[in-house]
Design goal:
It is a single chain. The chain has 9 helices and 16 strands. The chain has helices at 13-24, 70-82, 91-98, 100-109, 126-132, 157-169, 227-240, 268-274, 278-289, and strands at residues 2-6, 28-32, 37-40, 47-50, 53-54, 60-63, 86-87, 117-118, 138-142, 151-154, 174-178, 186-193, 196-204, 219-222, 244-252, 255-262. The strands form 4 sheets. It has a 5-stranded antiparallel beta sheet, with helices on both faces. A 4-stranded parallel beta sheet has the order 2-1-6-7, with helices on both faces. A hairpin with an 8-residue loop joins strand 9 (138-142) and strand 10 (151-154). It is globular and about 60 Å long.
Length: 290
């Protein structure tokens, strides 16, 4: 098959691994920078120009679209879809996953466990906002934040009020969530491919850090999910319409709580922690559906 990987940087671990896995299974694979794709939209078959040439036949696309280029990257994926090309992440699912508020609403409608969350239109009654999530300590998240950036732990009522008021003053959209103390600064990342969990790791924040992101110095180890956690991960990916998804969960006294569903999950941490060839699994998923 002819497979295109949409990625800004061909040297990134996840991109390299997908290229290696595709070549090992005798596919022709090419990495395209989505920002260098020109979209020709007309009545007849829509075209994609890449570096001045019309793209040749494509059987499948693997979008590795960063948050900063979501709008244009999604348009490129949509152009492939218009040509009936299989994509591991649909344009619609990509847009959903990048909207934190919409994602939480979709997951709530699917009756999945979530940390209690509040979103307001810059409410001046900050005390009531804090009360809605059970008081301090609590988590404040910028809707546009990624990889742990724009996430604040407010440990006291005064701190929570100050941070929320500051964000409101800047007209920065935030959600406020309850703090799950029993999670102990750790979360679970489950990698779901084609409706099955193909790997899971527990990420632990470094000392004094409540965020468990590996980009922020967290550590990862393999974990065997409970039946409830596995079912929640699969249901979350399905609710978001994602064939490939990284589902982030907290372990709580009331069961797994979904934090986020990532449409372009990194492979380095989970392959290292589990020893599983996730890239190969994604290529086999393409073979099955293309």
């Amino acid at each position: 098959m002819n497979i295109k990987i949409l990625s800004r940087n061909s040297s990134l671990y996840s991109t390299r691994r997908l290229v290696e896995a595709a070549k090992k299974r005798n596919h022709h694979v090419e990495v395209l920078d989505p920002l260098k794709c020109d979209l020709i939209i007309e009545k007849r078959k829509p075209h994609i120009f890449y570096k001045g040439k019309v793209l040749g036949e494509t059987d499948a696309v693997i979008p590795r679209i960063g948050a900063s280029i979501t709008f244009y990257g999604t348009a490129v994926v949509r152009q492939f879809e218009m040509n009936s090309v299989f994509t591991t992440t649909s344009s619609q699912s990509l847009m959903r996953s990048r909207d934190k508020l919409r994602s939480l609403q979709i997951l709530s409608r699917a009756r999945l466990g979530l940390p209690k969350t509040i979103f307001t239109n810059y409410s001046k009654d900050v005390g009531e906002v804090i009360e809605h999530v059970g008081g301090a300590p609590l988590i404040i998240k910028l809707l546009e934040g990624t990889q742990g950036l724009g996430v604040v732990l407010a440990e006291t009522q005064n701190a929570a009020e100050s941070v929320i008021e500051a964000f409101n003053g800047l007209q920065a959209r935030v959600i406020v969530q309850e703090f799950i103390k029993e999670a102990g600064g750790a979360d679970i990342r489950a990698l779901v491919v084609d409706g099955q969990v193909v790997g899971a790791m527990k990420r632990q924040g470094k000392d004094g850090e409540f965020r468990s992101n590996l980009h922020r110095g967290g550590t990862a180890s393999i974990i065997e999910l409970t039946d409830e956690e596995e079912a929640a991960a699969i249901k979350a990916a399905k609710a978001m319409g994602l064939g490939v998804a990284g589902v982030d969960m907290l372990q709580s006294s009331r069961g797994p709580l979904i934090l986020e569903v990532n449409s372009s999950p990194g492979l380095e941490g989970i392959e290292a922690a589990t020893g599983h060839d996730i890239a190969k699994t994604i290529i086999r998923y393409i073979e099955k559906h293309s």
